[in-house]
Amino acid sequence: MYPSVAISLCTLAAYCQSHRTCPRFSIQSQCKTLCYLHDIPYRPYLKMQFSAAYDIFLEILHHISQCLRQALKRDTINWRMLNTCPACFYKLDDEPALDFEWLVSIDGNNSLKRWDSSIYGTTARSDSRTARSDYWIHADTVDKFENEVKSRQTDLRNDDDWEDEPTDPDHPGAFTCVNQWRNAGPDSHKKMFAIFQESGIFIASCRHRFVLLACDMIRSGELVKYPIAIIDKLLTVYGKNGGCAYNIGCAFSKTLANSTLGPRAHDLGFRMMVGAFHGHAHNQRCQLDWHPMYISGTGHTEGKGCEHIFSASNELAHSTRHANRFHRHQAIEEHFAFWDADKYAALMSGNYFVETAELETIKAELRLSDNDFPGFFDQECIYLDVNSSYAKLQHAEGLVAHCETLLSVDERWLIGGDEYKCFKEEATLGKYHTALDELECLVVMRLFELSKLSLSGTGYKLRQQISKALQRRSDAIRNVINCYNIQAASLIPLRQMIAWKDIAEYSFLGEFDLLCDSRTDIQDKDWARPAHCEATTKYFKLCRAREEIIRLNIEIRQLRTAIHDETIDTSAVIDELLVANPLLAAELKRQWRSRAAINAVHTYQLDQIERLFGFSGISGIGTRLANPAFSRPVNTNGASSAQAENPDSSASEFHDIEALDREEHKVVTKDMADFLYSIND
């Protein structure tokens, strides 16, 4: 009845936007700022009061958003997923078919952990509030897939060893990389999970880095149930011909095929791949099968959208670590909503043209043609398959030697004998491989330290420690290079020598696989020559770039059509609300001003692209593909609902109205874009 503290809506709105743009800016920081401005000492209870008021403020915004979604007919199931990224999912009925109708990436992150309050010896305060958005897949839905991996009766540990699926006999070298570059270790070796109620999140994003789905990882690492639950939802919403990048997609594809979701994924033409960054950490044979650069139809999709999202969401960690479940979800939802809005504003960034001059120059120097590069690719695949078979032979020979020991076979080899020479050759080769593995390990550590050194948020002391570690690492690498060269010189035939300057060029770890040659000398093979390898890589990049142009032509028209349809629909709803609910109409007009300004910039940039010399797409707007998930009927050629439903309108009148509407829309958006650019200037 007699309040002593009041927090204005403007203050709450200002903090809401500040926290969205700077997740590190916490409620405590905001309260201390206000106390300083009001010349009063800070007290911890002020933070609690501000937090309660902020919860109510966000609840008000949520109810207003619900009313607006209902008025705009955007409250149907899966509407957000089908419309969050118009470039990806605003499908038109006359667009050409693509190898992949939709491309996503999935990954887990453990930064957004939440402590279990029981570790403090306290009981968590009851809070019945739940997550408001449809980003989340409920834990009960995820748990339906927890038994997808068959447990081994002889193994009593609670391990998440779903990566260790048996090797495919048709592709013997496909999954060996997972044992070397493990992404998720056994739970029994991760005791820290016991102190966290949620140990992180697992998300899916489209190729333009919009957040599509998320689920909590509860007291565990990246268990198989999380990606399967995410993929199940993606297949339900987006349907056939989908592609998905995952750090260990090579091994997970085997797990997916053996799961209950496997037949459905196969029937819908679903394809797993490995993201570009992690793909280069897998062995060369794995890269040839799973890296996006070698998969037709991927374009310039890097498959690392989740990493970009995590680089921003990591800033939330210090404010959500000790929050309750509702406040943690609320903070993550607010962050994701702003992230998606920010990605929409930056949707038109990128390059449209393909550079071919460099590859043409290389082809002329090496006297190669485009037909040679696929041949090099096939020859490399055959060689690596054979090499993997030889590794299996070595393992079998080792098993035989072990059996001979158990059977007390005491006959010794004579020095100079055939068996002795063979073993000496194998031992020398083993030392060579050991030196090579150690060198590869040090190079990997150096690459990670270099990336950490330039990472945003790395403090001064940590940078100093990393710099010293890099110096020590450089000395260690030089020593190992000398050891490697000694072993390489002892082999017959001689293996390739390595100098310090070569290490900087070994940025892709798959190149080490070509040094692990066993019996066949590949130095004279065309596909193994460094110049030919570089040219082959550029060729496949050029192939993907040409595919990217085809996809961009489709996405450009989809975005223009989405902007056109959104403008017509929103304007019609505003007119309706001005009569039925003027206050809600005023709020919709306020929100639409910001969206219209962004759409104006997009339209201006789309116009510039369509005027480019060499533009190969279709100009203008299209008609959205009918989908039962949409509640509002699709308007023919962007006409209003009243025009589409009027049977008395003639064809000529209809096209005249459409042309006038389109020209008016272009004039308005271009004037607004020119005005915005003048402000920036």
TrEMBL record:
Q: Identify the domain of life.
A: Eukaryota
Which region ranges are annotated with the description Disordered?
150-169, 632-652
Residue stretches of biased makeup (Polar residues): 633-652
**Where does the sequence pass through the membrane?**
none
- Where is there biased composition of kind Basic and acidic residues? 150-159
User: What is the protein's given name?
Assistant: CxC2-like cysteine cluster KDZ transposase-associated domain-containing protein
Question: Organism, per UniProt?
Answer: Suillus fuscotomentosus
